Amino acid sequence: MTAHDTHGLLAPYALDALDDLERRRFEHHLAECASCAEELRGLRETTAMLGLAASSRPPAALRTRVMDEIARTRQLPPGTGARRRWTLPGLPLLLTAAAAMIAVIVFAGYAALQSPAPGPTPPSDPRVSAVLSAADARSVDVEAAGGTGTIVFSRSLNKAVITMSGLPEVPAGRDYELWLIGPRKPRSAGLMREETQVISSVDDATHVGVTIEPEGGSPTPSSAPLFTLALPG
Amino acid sequence: MSEPFARFTSRTDDKDLPEPPDGLSALLRNVARGDRQAFELVYEQISAPVYGTVLRVVRDPAQAEEVAQETLVQVWREASRFDPSRGSPMAWVLTLAHRRAVDRVRSSQASSDREQRVPYLEREHDQVAEEVETRLDRERVRRCIGGLTELQRESVTLAYYSGYTYPEVAGLLSVPLGTIKTRMRDALIRMRDCLGVDR
Q1: Helices H / strands E in chain A, number of each
Q2: CB contacts, 8 Å: A56 with chain B
Q3: Looking at the partner chain, which of A48, A71, A83 has a beta carbon nearest the beta carbon of B91?
C-alpha cells in the first residue's frame, strides 16, 4: 500500500467502512503517521455527529442491566506512559493490564481517534507490516481467556501475526508461550511478552495455542492451553 | 444538556475550553476512579446517542440493546484511557459504539439480511424519535448533509448508517472505488467545516 493509497483510506476508516484486514493495515500505518491521526480526529468528530443526530432513548431496562454489569466489571488502570496503545508496547504494559479487559485491540478502536503524543514514533516491526500487507493475508478476531485480539496469517509468507491485549497478568516467574499446533507435536512459536508477536514457520500448523509456562518458556507445553485458535485462511 | 454541541463540535481546541463540572470529560475522570454515581450521569448523556447510533446500523432493537450494553460497559471499563486533549468524549464514545455496531452486522448478518437494510435508508431522517435534546443536533446535521452532493451524501450515509464497507458502497452506487474514497473524504471535510462554523 503506498502512502497515497493509505491517505485515501482516512475517510473510509473514519466511517468504519474498511473490512477487518484493511482496517488493521490502515491502523498499522496510522501508528507512524501523525498528520493522518490529526486529520482523522476531525473526521471522527464529524462522524460522531452523525451518530449523535441518530440519538434514540433506549429501553429503561438497559440502564438496569448496564448498572448491574458495571458493578461486577473491573476497570482498566490508566495507561501509564503508554499513550499509544496501537504501537507495540512491551512487557510491563501488558502485565499491568492485569485481569482487566482491553476490548480495544492494539491496532484498533479509539486509539486511532486519539492523536499521538508528540515525540519520536517507535518504528513498527517490518515483519509485522509484511504479514499485514501480504496479498493473501487473512485475519480472524479473537476473544479468549479474557483478552481480545486478532490473528493475521499469510500462507505465502508462512507467517502469522498475533495481537492480544487484556490477557490476565501472568504469574511471577511465568511467561505466556505460543504454540503451533498441527498434525505433529506442538511446536513453540516463542514467548508472548508483547501484545503483538510474529509467528514464523507456520508450515503445516492449523492452530495457534497459548499456555502459561515457567519463565523463559518450555520445549513442550507443560499445561493445558488457555486457548487455541484456528489460523484463518 | 441544553447545547450538546458546545462540548462536542470543536475539532482541535477542546482542551482549551473551560469545561462545566457536569461535562463528560470531567465525569469520565471520576468514572475512571470507580465513581458509579458519575457513571450514572455519564449514562444519562451518552445512552441515547449510543443506542441510537447502534440501532441505526444494527436495525434490530434486541441486538442494538446488546451492542449498546457492551459499549456502555466498555466506557466504564476504559474510562481511564480517555484523554480529552485528543478528542471529544462523545466522539470517543460514539467511535466505540459505531465500531461495535458495524462489527456486529458484518459478523452476524448474512448478505441477504444486509440487502434488506437498504430500503430503510430512505426513512433515515424520519424514524428517529424526536427527543428534545437531540432535535437541534439532528437539524444541524441534516442541514449540513443537505449541503452535500447526492453522491457525497449517499456515500457517507451508506457507510455510516448502514455499515457498508466502501467497496460495497461503490458497488451499490456503481462508481469506481477511488471515486467513493474521494467522495467520502470530501463529504466529511465539508460536513466538518459546516458543523464547525456554526458552533
Answers
A1: 7, 8
A2: 48, 51-52, 55-56, 128-129, 131
A3: A48
Chain A contact for B94 (CB, 8 A cutoff): yes
pTM, rounded to two decimals: 0.63
- What is the CATH architecture assignment of B147-195? Orthogonal Bundle (1.10)
Residues 6+ apart with CB under 8 A from A19: B106, B165, B167
Exposed, middle or buried: residue B112 (CB in 10 Å: 0-12, 13-18, 19+)? exposed
Q: How far is CA B60 from CA A55, A82, B52, B113, in A?
A: 15, 38, 11, 11
Any idea which fold A126-230 has? Answer: Immunoglobulin-like (2.60.40)
How is chain A split into domains, by residue range? 3-114, 126-230
Amino acid of residue A62: L
Task: State the DSSP H helix or E strand holding residue B116, giving kind and residue range, or none if neither.
Answer: helix B111-117
| Distance in Å, alpha carbon of A221 to nearest chain B alpha carbon | 33
Do you know the residue count of chain A?
Answer: 233
- Spatial distance between the Cα atoms of B164 and B185, rounded to a whole number of angstroms: 16
- From chain A, the residues in CB contact with B7 under 8 A are none
Nearest to B192 among A16, A46, A71 (CB): A46
Q: Which CATH class is domain B3-113?
A: mainly alpha
Whether ipTM tops 0.95, in short, is no
Residues of A in contact with B82 (CB under 8 A): 110
- Where exactly are the structural domains of chain B? 3-113, 147-195
Asked if B28 reaches chain A (Cβ–Cβ under 8 Å), the answer is no
The tens place of each residue's pLDDT in chain B, 199 residues long, gives: 444 444 444 444 444 445 555 689 999 999 999 999 999 999 999 999 999 999 999 999 999 999 999 999 999 999 999 988 778 999 999 999 999 999 999 876 544 444 444 433 333 433 444 444 567 778 889 999 999 999 999 999 999 999 999 999 999 999 999 999 999 999 999 999 999 833 3
Report the topology of domain A3-114. Answer: Arc Repressor Mutant, subunit A (1.10.10)
**Closest Cα of chain B to A187: distance in Å?**
31
